[in-house]
Amino acid sequence: MVLCDLDRDLAAARAQQFGIPEVETDYQRLLSRSDIDVIDIVTRGNDRGENHQELTFAALEAGKHVLCEKPVCHDYRDIQRAHEVAASKDLKTKVGLTFRYAPAIMYMQALIAEGFIGEPYIFNGFEQNYQWIDPDTPMDKRPHRERSEDTEVKGHDPRPEAIQVLSLEGYGAPIIDIGLMSVGSGLERVVGTLKNMLPYRRRTNLDTERERINVDDADIFIGECANGTLFSVQSAYVTVGNYPGIEARVYGSKGALVCRLVEEFGECQTLHGARPDAVEFVRMPVPDRFFPPGVGAGEPWPSLFYGNLVHNFMQELHGGDGVNQGNFAQSARVQEVINAVALSHRQRRWVELPLGS
Amino acid sequence: MKDKLRVGVIGAGRWAGMAHIPGWKRSPLVDLAVICDIDRDKAEARAKEFNVPGVETDYQKVLSSGDIDVVDIVTSGDNHEPLTFAALEAGKHVLVEKPVCHDYKDVWRAHALATSKKLKTKVGLTFRYAPAMQYMYDLIQDGFVGQPYIFNGWEQNSQWIDPAGPSRFARQDTGNAPIKVGSLEGYGAPTIDISLWVVRSRLTSVVGMLKNFVPKRKNPDGNWVRTNVDDGDIYIGEYANGAICSMQSSYVTVGNYPGIEARVYGSKGALICRLVEEFGECQVLRSATPEAVEFVPVEVPASYFPVGYAKGESWRSLFYANLVHNFAKEITDGGEANQGNFAQSARVQEIINAVERSHRERRWVDLPLDPGVGD
């Protein structure tokens, strides 16, 4: 394992923290090494906040399996292209769709696959948190020491239809992913609304005044799936509640399951189920097999869920069969829904999927 | 002035026996005088069960009686509209089960008639009278959530999840006719009411979809018929004050009665009220604030419960006891207060009509539907 960061001190400190032998500052050198099989892209971006796309394509071209944080690209067609590059080189890919790897979500999916809910009727998904509920929390929370001149100004156009997509992409993606997986069908049409609940906010920690920043801090969309399922998803980062703030409800002809990933009173996941002949929802304990190796009691959700994600990716790479869940193809489907909802908001209408067909 | 309000109940069916009549009997402001049903045996049985002195089979006789102040319409048929207008014309205060009328404009007409005669009205929007819901509203009034951002509402049950399940009545074969409004009107109304009430703003636009998940059902005669009725629906909406909402109703989704959930997220806090009977509890209110983001249960003060409340009481009688007592108090007090009246029901029905239109025309529909109607 090698750790690479533009900031050598940061890379060195992390390497020491986790006992990693090597440190690198130039990702090109990393990609050109033949003794590296997998590249994990977990950059937070340059000043424009974007380099996942560039790094992903470079890593695939260099013949590496790739794990990438979302969004891989902002346009679903670019993710589809990345998927095609990977497929043409027999490379596997994985996107940081963290919450599908929560043990309770994995168990929920296993129950759905066994027929617990029967034919799906309705899916309701939420991803919510409160990290920007205070207007004095700057839009860009990084601890800048000086102003950067080429920083892209987000949300400068105040018209409602010009709102910049933010929560929907940042927080909506994982729950859209879980929804599509839960109902086992793609969306055929969506309609939604993106809102800017807090119109005035400090741009960076260097600013003292709030300014008009028109970004989506709360959104809801509804949709209809090819198999007839009704679908709703809500995301927001100005709604009170603890992290990670995920809730997935699925109702079907034979039962219903509600999975909550919300850290409350020492628990970060709960799964409840009900059936027509036992309509009061009861807690369904998650079996041990859905937990990652080396899990400890009370383990925080970021390492617990990510432990499952990377271990699952390693199993898929070692397994040699075609299985590759949560890959670029799935991420492209999720991003297409995000793009469709944004279009639906801007044009105030139902948008049919697939886009551009 | 008489000591107590004299009440006549029209309709002696299940819901009357479970919710309305026990509610009237409990209110110290009320004297339940007569029970009317076209089926005399049914009316007599209910009168005996609840020790009510009068029995009637002709509603006209109830309306023309000079010593009846309030008429409660709880008939099962599609006759709320004519009974309501007749009762108002006869000068009675009216409580009626929803829907008052299927077209919101008719509900506004009924409201105008009541207002012109200085009569108070109330609609069976049962769930706003749940102690936990009334307390949630007061907390919101006191500023607990700050500026509201998002409302999420559900009313769901699994009453008709089984296509072969026993039905009390034969369903009409809908053939290939367009989907009919079902769950949205029957189950959506109470949460729509709550959504308008607690967000304290009107909706300006809605877009939604009605679905028919169970396409065929078995009638009591054993025959299967096509039932193209909305058994599940979702819509989203935008309020004048900038908040947004999602609303869902269904009678084919697993879960216990009454299956209501209302969530409000705002700038200063969030409240979640669940009215779902589970493990002996029929209402739960929980709250969180930016400083304490893990939701904790909120205790509902004793003042929000009706006379004679005992822990473990069924929601069916508990919520309705609050409803009828609140109505009796509004009439007796004689002030302007009249929550959940025909005006509110008209606003709710307008949204139901707008969502139906949004479904049929597959687009956002702006409110008011007719700028000349309503308030």
Explain what you see:
Chain A has 357 residues and is α/β, with parallel strands linked by helices. Chain A has two domains: 2-98, Rossmann fold (3-Layer(aba) Sandwich); 101-141 and 152-352, Dihydrodipicolinate Reductase, domain 2 (2-Layer Sandwich), CATH 3.30.360. In chain A, 29% of the residues lie in helices and 23% in strands. Chain A is built from nine helices and 16 strands. In chain A, the strands form four sheets. Chain A has a nine-stranded mixed sheet with strand order 15-14-13-12-6-11-10-7-16. In chain A, helix 3 (52-61) packs parallel to helix 4, helix 4 (76-88) runs antiparallel to helix 9 (328-347) and helix 7 (172-183) packs across helix 9. The model of chain A has no long low-confidence stretch (mean pLDDT 94). With 375 residues, chain B is α/β, with parallel strands linked by helices. Chain B is globular. Chain B has two domains: 5-97, 3-Layer(aba) Sandwich (Rossmann fold), CATH 3.40.50; 128-361, Dihydrodipicolinate Reductase, domain 2 (2-Layer Sandwich). Chain B has helices spanning 14-26, 40-50, 59-64, 80-89, 104-116, 131-141, 183-186, 188-199, 315-333, 342-361, and strands spanning 5-10, 30-36, 54-56, 70-73, 93-96, 121-123, 148-156, 203-211, 216-218, 224-226, 232-239, 244-250, 260-266, 270-275, 284-289, 292-297, 365-366. In chain B, helix 5 runs antiparallel to helix 10 (342-361), helix 6 (131-141) packs parallel to helix 8 and helix 8 crosses helix 10 (342-361). Chain B has a nine-stranded mixed sheet with strand order 16-15-14-13-7-12-11-8-17. Chain B contains ten helices and 17 strands. Helix content of chain B is 32%, strand content 25%. Chains A and B meet through strand 6, strand 7, strand 10, strand 11 and strand 15 of A and strand 7, strand 8, strand 11, strand 12 and strand 16 of B.
